[in-house]
Backbone:
């Protein structure tokens, strides 16, 4: 997946059936706007950030 090529992205898993994805990233290197732009470019879909719980 192209999102994994964004510097600072450690892992990315997506389910197009569920219309959800999870991205693990280094906040010292990147932020959600960088990989969200790549997702939107790849898929044509708008992406949003959902907060995660501390134990996720």
Residues:
């Amino acid at each position: 997946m192209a999102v994994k090529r964004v510097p600072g992205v450690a892992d990315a898993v997506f389910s197009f059936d569920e219309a959800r994805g999870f991205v693990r990233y280094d906040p010292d290197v990147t932020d959600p706007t960088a990989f969200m732009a790549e997702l939107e470019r790849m898929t044509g879909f708008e992406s949003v950030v959902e907060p995660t719980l501390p134990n996720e």
User: Anything to note?
Assistant: The mean pLDDT is 83. The longest strand covers residues 9-15. The radius of gyration is 11 Å.
